[in-house]
Design goal:
384 residues, 2 domains, TIM Barrel, 16 strands
Length: 384
């Protein structure tokens, strides 16, 4: 099968959002044609009026970094041996055989961002991956960021070990130190190349941060409290980094400031309580308030904090608390794609993008609805 016909298509692109009765064609996993009317393919899948949405995208998860029901033996979220580990490659810890990948596909989630945990001030790189496959090397779409963490988590992790950082001051200082070292290392390498001199001795940590300093990937800052959010922005400006604000729980208190900064806020999880002090101001209205202020909002599960299959349920919770339905759908499709710099591949149904899509009989934000069919990489991955 390489065509679906007789479908209502929600494209999520900038030019046309809805094709009332149309078709989608693809070859080798890439969309080649999308339009109104018939596709002229007798072997096309007949959607019989069902609605097609782009494959959904979760902008912040820890998918595959633990195995359901196993516990600490399979926990690969955090390398807690030291507080700065930018040279850790996240794909080395992902287990594609964890059942959560299939739960994602069944929910119509075809790509996810997988990040290290937030125990470390600097934690390692971040990957955008497909939610189908057996070998993570083939599931990898691209590396999209470096993980940083502000506030409570690094403090409590290393305070208990009786080593720095004990304070928010120390967290910021460690991040500055890492970035300054990497900047000098990068400049020394460039100088050596230009002047035919000896290059600096290889340093894995500094090497890992060069793509960030060159704006090839973004800084993903774990930050809940308003002051931590502003510290993240301060650091990003200081080193001229592109960045995302992950969780951004106090965002509703400073929405005007974040709008003026042009920030991306990855809000979530939304199925949780105020389980620690820095969540004192948590509200499910956060996404709606940020959106109304003009902040670009993504919604995430933070799997396994909220299981991956409930991404659309959390988007519905945001709608219940003030976010428009249209913006909620954007927050799990095209907005996260833009936020991570992958909107040339995912997030909408357009020619040249991945053939990732799901068909629904009803509203995907309805708790009673599940996809009837999920296509990812041009192949049927789930059919109900």
């Amino acid at each position: 099968m390489n065509c679906i016909k007789n479908a209502k298509i929600i494209t999520m692109d900038n030019e046309r959002r809805v094709i009332e009765r149309g078709f989608i064609k693809w070859e080798n996993g890439i969309i080649t044609e999308i339009g109104e009317g018939e596709c002229g393919d007798n072997d096309a899948y007949d959607a019989k009026g069902l609605t097609i949405y782009p494959g959904f995208v979760d902008a912040h998860t820890h998918l595959g970094l633990t195995t359901n029901g196993v516990g600490e033996e399979s926990d690969d979220f955090n390398e807690e041996s030291e507080p700065c580990t930018p040279h850790m490659h996240i794909i080395d810890g992902i287990n594609p055989f964890d059942e959560s990948f299939y739960e994602a596909i069944k929910a119509g989630i075809t790509s996810v961002v997988v990040s290290p945990g937030s125990a470390n001030a600097v934690a390692g790189d971040i990957a955008l991956i497909h939610t189908y496959g057996k070998r993570v090397d083939k599931m990898l779409i691209k590396t999209v960021g470096i993980k940083f963490a502000m506030g409570e988590n690094p403090k409590m992790t290393y305070m208990n070990k009786e080593q720095t950082p004990y304070t928010r001051l120390a967290i910021a200082a460690l991040i500055r130190e890492s970035l300054n070292k990497a900047k000098r290392y990068m400049e020394d390498k460039q100088k050596a190349e230009n002047e035919d001199e000896d290059a600096p001795e290889y340093d894995a940590k500094n090497e890992a941060l060069i793509p960030l300093l060159q704006k090839k990937v973004k800084a993903h800052f774990h930050c809940h409290r308003a002051d931590d959010i502003f510290t993240a922005i301060r650091l990003a400006k200081e080193f001229d980094l592109d960045y995302l604000l992950i969780h951004c729980s106090d965002g509703h208190l400073i929405a005007d400031e974040l709008s003026a900064e042009g920030a991306y806020a990855v809000v979530g999880p939304l199925l949780n309580d105020k389980c620690k002090p820095e969540l004192a101001n948590f509200t499910p209205a956060n996404a709606g308030i940020l959106d109304k202020a003009g902040v670009s909002v993504c919604i995430c599960t933070d799997h396994s904090e909220t299981p991956i299959q409930y991404l659309l349920l959390t988007a519905a919770i945001a709608v219940k608390n003030g976010l428009s339905r249209e913006r909620a759908l954007e927050a799990v499709t095209i907005t996260p794609a833009k936020a991570i710099g992958a909107d040339d591949l995912i997030g909408s149904l357009e020619k040249g993008k991945l053939a990732d899509m799901s068909l629904f009989e009803g509203d995907p934000l309805d708790v009673y609805q599940s996809p009837s069919l999920v296509v990812a990489g041009g192949e049927i991955r789930f059919q109900r």
